[in-house]
Every structure is written in C-alpha cells, then in structure tokens.
Amino acid sequence: MTSTTPEAGWYQDSSTPGLARWWDGSQWTEHTAPLDGPEPPPPAGMPSEPDAAAPEPEAPTAKPAPGTFEPEPESFTPEGDPSPGPEVSDTTTPPAGVSTGSWVAAPSAPTPGRSGASGSRRFLVVLLLLVVVAAIAVGAWYWMSSLATDVEDAGAQMTGAVDDAGDTAARSDVQQLQTALTVYLSADGSGELPTITSDGSAYLIEGASGDTTSVGMSEGVAFGGFSGTDGSDWCVWVTASSGVSYQGEPGTTPSEGRCG
Fold first, then answer.
1. 213 or 50: whose pLDDT is higher?
2. Which of 65, 107, 147, 213 gives 205 a disulfide partner, CB atoms 3.0 to 4.6 angstroms apart?
3. Domain tally, the chain
4. What is the rounded CA–CA span in Å between residue 226 and residue 215?
5. pTM, whole model, 2 decimals?
6. Domain contains 177
7. What's the pLDDT score for residue 4?
8. How many angstroms separate the CA atoms of 103 and 39, rounded?
C-alpha cells in the first residue's frame, strides 16, 4: 500500500461529521459541502479535478554505455513546499455513487478543527483556582477556630480573675467586721450583741444605746447575716460577687461558708 498527496477535490471533514471540505491540492480551504447530497462542483476560483486522458508517451531514455555507472537522480524538494495534503490509500474505495477522489477519508494531517490544548489549559487553570480557594477556606477556618479558642480562654481567665478579686474582697470584709465587732463588744461591756445592717456602701453596727459604727463595704460584696448569743459566741458572713460566701467568728480566720 502506498501513500500520495491527492489532487484538489472534496474530502470528508474529520472535525465535522457529515461535512466535506475542499482540498486545493496543497492545503484545506474554507469551502464545505454536505456529504449526503450529490457531489457539488468545485468552488468558484478553485481548480477542478483533471479529466482522465490518455497517458502521454514517455520519452525514451538513453541507456548508459556498457561498463559505465549512472548515479540515481536525487529527489528534489522545492523551497517553500507547502504542508503535505491528505494521504490517500491506493486501496481506498469511495462510497457508492461518488466519483474517485471525492468524499474519501479525511487525512491525518493537516486536519481542520480546534486543538484540545486550550481546553486542557482552561481545565488546569480552573483546577488551580479551586485548590487556591480550598486552601484559603481551610486557612480561614483554622484561624477562626484558633481565634474562638483564644477568646474563650481569655474570657475564662478574665472571669477567674474577677472571681478571685471578689473572693478576696469578701474575705477582707469579714475580717474588718470581726475586728469592728471585737472592738465594739470590748467597749460596750454589756455583753449584749449589736445589730448589723448594710446600706449598700457600708456595714452598720448599731448597739442598744443607739450608737452606730460604720465599716467600709467592698464593691460587689453583699451582706449575708449576723447571729450569736453573747460577746464570745457570734458569727458574721458575707457573699462575694462569685456567689461564694465567707464567714468569721471570734478569734478565727475568715473561711468559706455561712453561719448557722
């Protein structure tokens, strides 16, 4: 089987099924025609296929003299030779009703149509963009999660610090009340217990005679209560902003709890 460059004519367009394209003998043209109809004439201005004619007699060639050597002629390729046309197999049989040289299988090169390279590049660009967007989303999620954790930890630390400060203030208030009550009972000498109230800013110790002693009250601390039987048996307690209560009795250190 041999392969040659076909002459000008209509050939099947591999890029568009059911369509033929005009080959001018050296390259594809923009002229097309449907395959399912009769063979159209050559496009205007295009050379038609040569009519079959009797072969011209070959000129006699001189044979070399005996004992001489005649080199094989070198093949000649003119400069600027165009790209090869469609390859036609000498065993190709055209469809029924179509003349030889028309509507044959489209060549492998050159073939009209678009290359898939641009589609591959677009796919790679889209894939790269998706990867970048996914990476940004993962990074943003990780950053937000870390930020939420940091905020939660900071809030817990702040709450703990506030609670610690409130507990310290409550213990301090109990200690001041213990000192003030000890001084009052020692000065009064009656052995009767006073009453203790609060106006929101101070603790008020009031005796039976009407004398009142004021003791400073810490912010966020609430007065809890005072109870007892005499100057050696009494208990006073307050509640801190954390909700923890602290109590104090004669000669003791303030401790967590409520009198009763």
1. 213
2. 213
3. 2
4. 14
5. 0.41
6. yes
7. 73
8. 8
